[in-house]
Amino acid sequence: MQRLIFTNDVAAQLAGIVAEIAPNRVYILTDSNTEAIGNELNTFGAKMITIQPGDEHKDLHSLADIWSELSLSGATRRSLLINVGGGMITDIGGFAAASFKRGIRFINVPTTLLGAVDAAVGGKTGVNFLHFKNEIGAFAAADAVIISTRYFSTLPAAELRSGFAEMLKHGLISSADTYRRLLAFDIVDADLDALLPLLEENVGVKRRIVEIDPREQGLRKALNLGHTAGHAFESLAMERQAPVPHGFAVAHGLLVEMVIAHLLEGFPSAELQIFAALLREAYAPAPAITCDDYPRLLDLMSHDKKNVSADKINFTLLSEPGTPLIDRTADTDTIKTALDLYRTLLNI
Amino acid sequence: MQRLIFTNDVAAQLAGIVAEIAPNRVYILTDSNTEAIGNELNTFGAKMITIQPGDEHKDLHSLADIWSELSLSGATRRSLLINVGGGMITDIGGFAAASFKRGIRFINVPTTLLGAVDAAVGGKTGVNFLHFKNEIGAFAAADAVIISTRYFSTLPAAELRSGFAEMLKHGLISSADTYRRLLAFDIVDADLDALLPLLEENVGVKRRIVEIDPREQGLRKALNLGHTAGHAFESLAMERQAPVPHGFAVAHGLLVEMVIAHLLEGFPSAELQIFAALLREAYAPAPAITCDDYPRLLDLMSHDKKNVSADKINFTLLSEPGTPLIDRTADTDTIKTALDLYRTLLNI
Q1: What's the CATH number for B157-346?
Q2: What is the DSSP letter of A292?
């Protein structure tokens, strides 16, 4: 059973869990951005492994470097790997641990809000391969995930908002009440102490969904809300050499998919206005798209790995905040209409 | 639930299972030795992937080649990989499948007796890394394993005897009756049709053990019988540039460990004579060791990955054929005495 700990005293909690697991060797994986945090947490003589930061280094080369460090320093099945960093570190470190000697224990200490809310729970680990994201990996749960908001104060504002988009998504698919409390939270001028309990509730939502459906056969698909359109925005921005943070693309994807839900499932129009106002305040600028971009966006949506047919596109939709509808589809005309309405809502 | 099929009509059985799984793309992995068998089985338009044969190619490089073939030809989570070959192919192919997009289905068609009895059941997959055997891998069960003895007729005699050593081990740890029937089988001039039902019973033994203890926490350790001493013989032979087949090393390891069991657990001395006679007939030549080799052999035994302390060495022992005793240890003096007796039994 994976333990999930919310604390602002990470060092003490981590040392306690390490003592309990009593591994024969301990390793802390960081990238150069989180190395200082890793050193600060290392009160138990762990060997430090540091790799280069950034999604472009979440690859086989870095993975082989981690395996080498483990192998050559005599790690065994009773050793422990602690991943300290953003989603890149918890993804690659989780897979390194899951595949070393067919699986050793690991602990995640996410240092970004996105990592805490999205990547550190759920057991998805992996690396990019060729030009495919997360092409190689495993489902493997960390022994413990230790979550604190104290590391977020050093992050750029955009990074915090990016993670908050995933929190909004969890609110939307779980309860209207949770969603309203998130809307009331000021992410632009964030109070990190007030964020910790919201984060705890939020990660709990994801955790329950993953426990019910670990292999993404049913309910877990609700977690894809906002991501079919969001990935298309993200890929389009990448193609134009102007990448946007993942959560910004997801935030805008959420609005597109709310509009589709409005058209097909009666999702209330007042909710569209409320969410558009949030996007204008916290997730500007909006993607600079025109109707000329629709064919490429549709193409990107239909190539999403969750999709199985080309003319109808899979979505998770909503009948209202808190009520997700999985395994829904929309045809291309509906999606084009939704993109028109989305642009109108944001004056694009 | 993994299916285990014993048949001499592999092609028909395989085609039936592929039709049932209804994957969107099918791949057959072979090495250059088994490519012809793969082609013969390919009645359903699978894409062939062929890698170089031999344990020295069970590495990250071959693994990346397999992943590339899958990625670049558009394999998805609903695709299927069929591994046709010896243990090298089922090991690397199983891990390639287990890690591609966090896991796709795979089927094993072992073409060697060792592969059928040892590597194709049990969910251990992986590749060598640096100079460590099976350092990187996963526990992942094939959807189906299709076992036939018809491919064994083209193998060198040593290969057949090598696999038979693992069958003897399964007899020893499961039932005196099974063990006696194996002793009565003539592996030197083998009747492959008569071997198929023996093999079915034998793989069933391993399968039941693995089902009870998939993660090697208890009973599954019984499968290590003969392997602590056997791996030491195998490594010593490798160091001397005169490698021996895995099963030959295991067969001799079984006798060493029977002698230890005789010294510590009352394993009957008559059984030692019977097994020594089999070794002289079917597993000659014996390892050319003298007492000068004992320190190195002990060193190799204590570095076995199942071991945790250096002065006592872990073994699975036996009180009699059919009754394994897991988590036993022997000290170095006992092991030296056992090696003396082993050499006496074989006139080394």
Answers
A1: 1.20.1090.10
A2: G
